[in-house]
Amino acid sequence: MAGNALVVGASGIVGSATAEVLLEQGWTVHGLSRRPTRQAGVVPVVADLQNRAGTAMALAELRPQAVFITTWLRQNSEAENIRVNGAMVRNLLDGLQAGGSTRHVALVTGLKHYLGPFEAYGKGTLPQTPFREDQGRLDVENFYYAQEDEVFAAAERDGFSWSVHRPHTVIGMAVGNAMNMGTTLAVYATLCRETGRPFRFPGSASQWNGLTDMTDAHLLARHLLWAATTPAARNQAFNVVNGDIFRWSWMWGRIARWFGLEPDGFDGSVKPLQEQMADDAPLWRVIAERDKLVELDLNRLSSPWHTDADLGRPIEVVTDMSKSRRLGFTDYQPTDDAFFELFARLKAERVIP
């Protein structure tokens, strides 16, 4: 079944992958972002979701049956995250109300549902792993909860169904994304190869030795479409991960060897990427100009703060997918292959040399 879809955050990692999957399945896709998306086949819709009137105007002529919310704006505090990101979802759904066409809204959040927001990340009393969807909200303020509440309220008002999707760290292609571990590690490896610096794992002993999982952007996109078109999946929250588990002590070597590097084993000390890459912007510009890369600004490619938050966690993080499996979603993606496919695409598109 295909129809009209609106992808909100179309220029991001998840949004662009979702648009690709929808187009492959014959959907008409409108992509909303603050700047026009240039993705082939996607009809651009330009709007700033913080602007209520402007958003309503931009959406006035659209009649999507399915809406996929894959965006957020990082703020300086969780209170501001809640205020801004809650309002963005509210403005979006209020702007679509007049058209009356919306049948399903899918919201992408993440494992901070279980781990807490950045201000209290991985601290306090956390649910036992593997995380399962029936584990309730933490007793802390969290902008994911605010986004959910806006979707729930609009669904009750307007009569559409909803789904909430909680991926782990997402591997995918986008430039200028605030949370982009795959490209950050690719850039870091490139810099290490250029300078002869050791390819050092930046995180904690818990992440080096413990089990973890991740989420490929295209697998997440297929999950979003599945939930939007599967009656049994409506009005449900789901974890979404690749289906494999690994230890970074294994994965780090796999990534290093793809770039022709020797991995530097974990020596017991945390070496954040924010520190390791703090002075690398001028060097990256030299590399990019020399090799005719498409992006000279290191800050638009890498997000060391986010990679440090993930790889520095003091606890093991594993995610249960049984709920989706029982309802029929059986897609699987080996995480090392997801990294390698991303690295190959970054190279082919001249993002890395």
Automatic annotation (TrEMBL):
<dbReference type="Pfam" id="PF01370">
    <property type="entry name" value="Epimerase"/>
</dbReference>
<protein>
    <submittedName>
        <fullName>SDR family oxidoreductase</fullName>
    </submittedName>
</protein>
<dbReference type="InterPro" id="IPR055222">
    <property type="entry name" value="PRISE-like_Rossmann-fold"/>
</dbReference>
<feature type="domain" description="NAD-dependent epimerase/dehydratase">
    <location>
        <begin position="5"/>
        <end position="240"/>
    </location>
</feature>
<dbReference type="InterPro" id="IPR036291">
    <property type="entry name" value="NAD(P)-bd_dom_sf"/>
</dbReference>
<dbReference type="InterPro" id="IPR001509">
    <property type="entry name" value="Epimerase_deHydtase"/>
</dbReference>
